[in-house]
User: Fold this.
Amino acid sequence: MKVAIQGEAGSFSQEAARRLAPGCTIVPCARSVEVFDRLERGSVTAAVIPIENSLAGSVTEHFDLLLARKVFIQREFRLRIVHNLIAAPGVRKADLRRAYSHPVALEQCRDFFRRNPKIEPIPFYDTAGSVKHVIEGGLRDAAGIAGRQAAQVYGGRILVAGIEDDKRNFTRFFLIRKVKRIVPGANKTSIAFGLKNVPGALFKALSAFALRAISLSKIESRPMRGRPWEYVFYADFLRGDDRPARQALGHLGEVAEMVKVLGIYPAA
Amino acid sequence: MKVAIQGEAGSFSQEAARRLAPGCTIVPCARSVEVFDRLERGSVTAAVIPIENSLAGSVTEHFDLLLARKVFIQREFRLRIVHNLIAAPGVRKADLRRAYSHPVALEQCRDFFRRNPKIEPIPFYDTAGSVKHVIEGGLRDAAGIAGRQAAQVYGGRILVAGIEDDKRNFTRFFLIRKVKRIVPGANKTSIAFGLKNVPGALFKALSAFALRAISLSKIESRPMRGRPWEYVFYADFLRGDDRPARQALGHLGEVAEMVKVLGIYPAA
Assistant:
């Protein structure tokens, strides 16, 4: 089974893919659109994408792609994000003057940099890519900050493990496929819907769920691509493909301009 | 008047700051927390921060900082985002093999790269920073992609102007201050509120606005920092500091666990 991910080998997406599809072959893609293109073309069986981090928020590009493309969420997974200081073999922590990583990762390791003022944080475009950069460039005074799988992939050594400030750092990933298939135990639904910009529109839309005591676990308005300040809503609710859920979606369809079910899957 | 911004000189934030506070002195900060620290300490009079892009979505870190810190939104501004291909003087477009920029900017210039396959897009941590990198490094086969003010600041030449795919690309900026002051003409309010995770909680909260025919122009749930999958809501509604708005906020206060008014300001 071939599974597309966005980003370098050794990324958190790769780790999530190994957990969601054990034994799969990873196909790294430079950009998220390429991940979705490959899935729609059928050159991969599935894709694994990060959708939301408990500290940094939603990966908005992926919500927009789920809405635009003919794909379906089949599984959800929560990965605990652990950041590690990784350098070339033989390099000691005392040798370090710089640490590269994605700005979000650097921000999540602020206490480490406060305790180690000789190491300067340098923004880089990718976590696993920062380790690749340090190892392949033979740098002796620099480290990358990434998940432990990046050390394995690029032959780095973990100098300090778990340097993130907040241990309650999780990322939600989706396994998506081209075919719509609801696996047993599915008890959560992700939807997108569009509303006219009139007072009370969202209130009416949410009545579809509130009147049936269906819990929303997330809601977010996103600008519609190319239509400034018009909004599409992304919501998750805690029901699978059952009668109340179908009735709620029917009710929502009467109120909304557009409704798309992005996936029905077992809650992580 | 000293105004703090996040990012390099020459960034879109700098352009927004010049429009929101003409004649101000810009204080560039490496990180957003530093911007808020300076404002709270009083070492700057105001700060200008991007809050939402019409294509890329919310700047979630800034919403979280508006909630956590004692600051108040005083003005809103919409900046049209124009991306330009910028290189060192004397470099021609035909010389280029690489173009550096922030991944979001590269993604917004996909058609340009399709039409110019000899130029490879390379992710960089900042738009203006990519121009600085290219000019200060004396690169002859590379360009940066950024706003025109980056060309002025670093002495670059614009080889192609306006290479973004979608001209409906705007970013909303806020001018924030430590003091709470509502300027004349204020007709829009930004709030944050927290809800218990029970079915219908958001429906009840929104009734405060729907029953008074007050229009929401934005709503977004965000994970609460350090409390995985608990949510705070950010909303904008189209009223200033008038009686119905105060009544709606009072009503919301009965339903919500927490309500904070982030600012009351004239809609851009």
